[in-house]
Amino acid sequence: MLSLFSTSSDKAGFRLQYMEVFNWGTFDEKVFRINPQGNNSLLTGANASGKSTYIDALLTLMVPAKKDRFYNQSSGVDKKGNRTEETYVLGHYGNIQEEGKSSTSTQKLRDKNTYSVILAHFKNTDLKFVTLFQVRWFSSSGELNRQFGIAHVPLEIEKDFRDFDSKGLWKRRLDKAYNSNTTKKKIEFIEGPTAYAERMTSLFGMRSVKALSLFNQVVGVKVLEDLDEFIRTNMLEELDAETEFIQLKESFLTLMDAKTNIEKAKEQIKQLIPINEIAQKLTNIQVDLQQLEKTKETSVYWFAKKGVELGKKELAHFAAIPKPSPVFQ
Predict the structure, then answer these.
(1) Are 188 and 282 in the same domain?
(2) Domain containing 258: what range?
(3) What is the 3-state secondary structure (H, E, C) of 163-231?
(4) In the chain, which residues have pLDDT < 50?
(5) Nearest to 109, CA basis, from 94, 131, 127, 124
(6) How far, in Å, CA of 85 to CA of 223, rounded?
(7) What is the dihedral of CA 181, 131, 136, 234, to 10 degrees?
(8) Are residues 133 and 250 in the same domain?
(9) Cystine design at 14: which of 26, 47, 90, 122 (Cβ 3.0–4.6 Å)?
(10) Pair (201, 303) in one structural domain
(11) In the prediction, which pLDDT does 327 show?
């Protein structure tokens, strides 16, 4: 991710190339797409034209945990909690009070047989691609299901998500289309917002998933009353000093034990060195003794041979001396 450190602020990091939504809020029945193409962009439109709805789709993709996300912040109204993932999938757009009744009924574009897809594609200057996508549908019991996914190739709703089914066959088709005959998966289906957030922060080069909560805050920030509190709450990681101290202490004791064992081993080696030298001398002496024993055994035959040679020499000498003539009387 070298592009994260680019000196050009308008190109650094992963930048949004395009974003698509299908059956999200009042964006109904067809795919609605924006194409920033990595540029800084301004989203404009008339009141109630869907600006906040579209931004909330991006917020949903970037901040998967519901507890860290607040919808409709950019609209300038107080948070009332009237927008949720379910209301966006069903397409709530207003309330109506029927004549003669005190209660109101919610107007919606879709029922629970629908499904919704939101998708955003990012690219950096190293030509690495990240596509975030989320699919939502209702189970037979009426519960809203969510499927998180990250792709390393460009995806499009019209091309890749039109053949949706609640049994999950659509995932098998995508897996077969993009992950067959490849060692590294091009599409990852991720279960749960926590694993999705961790994988996304890793790919984008974020230091912590807390950056996602910070993103949620800055999307709709209008009044910053206490800068210290904002930084402390949203930008600083909570550290457990006592636990870190205990771990540091244990690591120190482990290192001290290792140091003691190393010094002990060195002393043992030092004491064993003379033994090794003495053992070598003893081996040399044993070799010399064996050689002397062989020499001793051999000397018996050598002296015997020399004795025979001297005896023969003396016999030859005496044989050469003239014998005196006999004297007759």
Answers:
(1) no
(2) 241-311
(3) CCCCCCHHHHHHHHHHHCCCCCCCEEEECCHHHHHHHHHHHHCCCCCHHHHHHHHHHCCCCCCCHHHHH
(4) 1-2, 5, 78
(5) 94
(6) 26
(7) 140
(8) no
(9) 122
(10) no
(11) 64
